């Protein structure tokens, strides 16, 4: 069996559009006719340019190869161009293609992916959700800076069975390096934590999200302000390329530090562990794929750290996350996004019930992709999957930031 053909589909989720402006899906076919699906998480270049990157990676390093030879193909790509270091865009291309290889191998053997990478240890995976509007009174963009609305959304999610909710009221993500948060951003973050904790009590963990927007000193100030509400984690408080500084934050703040959605391969995650990160958040469509992230999980286990796969993408990456989570002893939880489009794209093969995802036992990733639906919603915009704010934060006015990919209406 050889890898023979590749198709790349860039699909745009319908309203409300949670999960980014578009998802990059890869369809890989073998010379025996088996089809595998994968997903490349975001990209630092536009989707048309990314198509060419994905195709170059496939044709240069994978076409004609046995899909079993995951490690061989990874080494070719990791070493390409005399680099021997992680390249975010190239590894993003490989990650989605690698997921497709595992889908192929599972289908060829009529076994789920988790059976091929160590076997199923966990039948059910604890899920968490970001707080999105849940009521007609939750208007945008006000929802993102209104603690009362966030608390209502949190209560709604907990009443559905979720035992962990994530929110990020701490101000905008800008193209500048880490900044000192405005005092009103700190106050709003405390207000969110207090309101949500009051609403859910001890029924759920609070996950405090940021996206690397703070300076080291700013991160320590923010962390100290919210400690009293016992968040389960403090997510990526400083930029991801300053992991040595992360250790200062981890040592100064009494909240477990989490990071990983913008890291790739064992090399970068090992540095995060050395910096005191206690919860790793790999996005499998970027981190190196299923096998490389299995290695990352082993590294984390040796450091007594836990893994919580990140998801701000489509359901194929979600399916890969769940297959990996089924096999590792140090899984904490997995991010989920519940929208009708996410469900429809994989024909409802993954669901959240009472706050947990049941690991599917079907062949490969355990999902069925609605290819017609994906193609019918082709992305025709010019934005990136996620985009940072160019303007600096304000120290006079309220900082309102709807996110890197504003919702559709």
Task: Put the structure in a nutshell.
This protein is α/β, with parallel strands linked by helices.
Can you walk me through this structure?
- By secondary structure, this protein is of the alpha/beta class.
- The chain has 13 helices and 13 strands.
- It has helices spanning 47-61, 70-78, 88-109, 113-116, 147-159, 183-200, 216-226, 243-252, 265-274, 289-302, 315-325, 340-345, 371-376, and strands at 3-11, 23-30, 35-40, 124-130, 164-167, 205-209, 233-235, 257-259, 279-280, 306-307, 334-336, 352-353, 356-358.
- The strands form two sheets. Strands 4, 5, 6, 7, 8, 9, 10, 11, 12 and 13 form a ten-stranded mixed beta sheet that branches. It has a three-stranded antiparallel beta sheet with strand order 1-2-3.
- α2 packs antiparallel against α3.
Notable traits:
TIM Barrel, ten-stranded mixed beta sheet, 13 strands, 13 helices, globular, three-stranded antiparallel beta sheet, alpha/beta, 409 residues
> For the CA atoms, what is the radius of gyration?
20 Å
CATH topology-level name of the domain at 116-365: TIM Barrel
Spatial separation of the terminal alpha carbons: 45 Å
Q: Into which percent range does the helicity of residues fall?
A: 25-40%
The biggest beta sheet is recorded as: 10 strands, mixed
Morphology call: globular
* SSE series: EEEHHHHEHEHEHEHEHEHEHEHEEH
If helices are DSSP runs of H or I spanning 4 or more residues, what is the number of helices? 13
Average of per-residue pLDDT values: 95
Strand content: 5-15%
Which runs of at least 5 residues are low in confidence (pLDDT < 50)?
A: none
What is the assigned CATH homologous superfamily of the domain at 116-365?
Enolase-like C-terminal domain
Instruction: Supply the CATH class of the domain at 116-365.
Output: Alpha Beta
DSSP strand tally = 13
Which structural class do you get from the secondary structure elements? alpha/beta
Level-2 CATH architecture of the domain at 116-365: Alpha-Beta Barrel
């Amino acid at each position: 069996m050889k890898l023979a053909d590749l198709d790349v589909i860039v699909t745009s989720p319908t309203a409300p559009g949670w999960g980014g402006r578009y998802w990059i899906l890869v369809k890989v076919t073998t010379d025996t006719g088996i089809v595998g699906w994968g997903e490349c998480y975001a990209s630092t270049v536009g989707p048309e340019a990314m198509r060419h990157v994905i195709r170059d990676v496939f044709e240069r390093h994978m076409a004609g190869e046995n899909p079993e030879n995951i490690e061989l193909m990874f080494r070719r790509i990791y070493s390409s161009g005399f680099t021997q270091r992680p390249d975010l865009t190239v590894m993003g291309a490989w990650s989605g293609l690698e997921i497709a290889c595992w889908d192929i191998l599972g289908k060829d053997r009529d076994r789920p992916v988790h059976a091929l990478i160590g076997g199923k240890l966990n039948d059910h995976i604890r899920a968490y959700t970001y707080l999105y509007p849940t009521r007609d009174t939750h208007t945008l963009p006000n929802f993102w800076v209104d603690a009362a609305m966030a608390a209502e959304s949190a209560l709604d999610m907990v009443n559905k069975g979720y035992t962990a909710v994530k929110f990020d009221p701490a101000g905008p993500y800008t193209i500048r390096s880490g900044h000192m948060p405005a005092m009103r951003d700190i106050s709003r973050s405390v207000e969110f934590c207090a309101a949500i904790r009051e609403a859910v009590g001890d029924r759920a963990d609070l996950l405090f999200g940021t996206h690397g927007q703070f300076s080291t000193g700013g991160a320590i100030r923010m962390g100290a302000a919210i400690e009293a509400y016992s968040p389960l984690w403090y997510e990526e408080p400083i930029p991801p390329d300053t992991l040595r500084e992360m250790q200062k934050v981890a040592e100064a703040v009494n909240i477990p530090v989490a990071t990983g959605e913008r890291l790739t391969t064992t090399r970068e995650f090992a540095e995060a562990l050395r910096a005191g990160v206690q919860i790793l958040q790999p996005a499998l469509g970027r981190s190196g794929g299923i096998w490389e992230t299995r290695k990352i999980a082993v590294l984390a286990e040796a450091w007594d750290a836990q893994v919580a796969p990140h998801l701000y993408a489509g359901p194929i990456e979600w399916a890969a996350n769940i297959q990996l989570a089924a096999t590792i002893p140090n899984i904490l939880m997995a991010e989920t996004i519940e929208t009708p489009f996410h469900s429809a794209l994989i024909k409802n093969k993954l669901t959240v019930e009472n706050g947990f995802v049941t690991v599917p036992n079907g062949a490969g990733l355990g999902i069925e992709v609605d290819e017609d639906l994906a193609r019918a919603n082709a992305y025709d915009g010019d934005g990136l999957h996620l985009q940072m704010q160019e303007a600096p934060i304000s120290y006079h006015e309220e900082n309102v930031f709807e996110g890197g990919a504003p919702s559709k209406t």
